[in-house]
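Memo to structure team: turn this sequence into structure tokens by end of day. - J.P.
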Amino acid sequence: MRAPLLALLLALAAPAAAVPTFSPDGFVSLTTATPLAFDSVGTYPMRLYFMRHASSDTDILSATSPDGQTWTVEAGSRLSTRTVPSVSASSITGLGVLPLTGGGFRAVYSIISTTGSWRVHTATSADGFSWANDTGTAFEYSGGADYVAAPALVKLDSGDWRVFFVRDQNGGNDPGDRRVYSALSTNQGRNWGAASLVISTVAHQVGAAKRADGRVRVFYSQPLGSASSTTVVSSSLSDDATAAAFTAESGYRASTGSASGSVSFPVPARSTDSFRWRLYYGYSDPVQPSSGSIYSVLNGPPDFISLSPDSVYTSAGAAGFTLRGEVFSAGPPQVVARKSGETDVAATAENRTDDQTMTFTLDMQGRTIGYWDLVITNADGNATTANARLLVDFAPGSVTLTNNLLRPRNGTVMNADVTTFNAGRVVLRVYTPDGRLVRTLHDADRPAGSFTATWDAKDAQGATVASGLYILRTTGPRLDGRSKILVIK
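Reply from structure team:
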């Protein structure tokens, strides 16, 4: 069998959205099989439900694994076209499974009926091994005349269930019109509300997983261009924890050239380390399409979304930061600020909230100004460099006036205390309100630090100015201030 050619992630990901990078595991999970669903997303040992090509899609089988890599096939079938009470199924076209709150499991699965209709039914099991159908149909369209298949289930943070499935958006059964739809259940999948379109690109099968922040990532197989076979696995991320609206993510999670077979049924699951995701999918060789097997890809390096704050002053000393992204290891990742030609600055007090959020402290006091990279290294050594993410800058300068109510007859002078945090030219000039220059008090290059300039209410020729309002304009490194001075004779 030819090995699939897998595309690595993140071709041109936007900096505002993380798309974790997946790499091939390099082994076949199960031969002559297609993955459908897991009985959990991250609790091991884990049961995988799958179909064997030799079964003509009439039986859903199962296998268990202690680590998501080595699988032992269980005897018999879990669900089949013979499961009772009968739903008159001639073949099964997809499956989603979730644990029930009170124990046991519910499956949502799609079928082609003995009369050629497309329908979705539900079944329950006390142990995930032996199943019985619920009565009635979960949902169908146009009396079963419209294509509907490949359901995937997610339990939302609210406790509601959401199903994602593929449906012909125009009715009938045109593969080019298949899109991802979603419906909500408030009673753990027994009944479903109206469905809505959530992903508007062509999709043939779908899988879904909930992240630590409650948002849902949907994976879907699709063809490229005019290809008839599904050659890539793409993904979209929900805009919030309701998972009712989605934004497409750049690149592909897995792919194969159009001449190298097809991919199908992407099914995500948490890795045993709890912070990485493993994506399983079916791959069919173009020479032997009926002998496809289950492959997987695993994301490794952490992925950067944002740093808050994203700038710091060289005079600030140690400052706290919050890093958001994905795939942060349970042992907190090591964070280093790096700039070409400079000494690395290692973060301290690193604390991981979850696989998407961590906090740390960086002391950039006295460091070179400009943008610094962040190097984020997981406990297993996988690392990501977020280029030019931290701006190190000098703080704004300041000017403070004392005695800015001048009475020349009393011999008072105005003091302007100026502070800058970088060397540069500092200029202080007094103007009339209509912009006429009265006098330049200071105009020279200065080192970082503080000094005081004075004004005795006299102009450039040494004459005492008239009573009234005057403006002191101060400019310097990150300093551009205007201050009022009142002269009363």
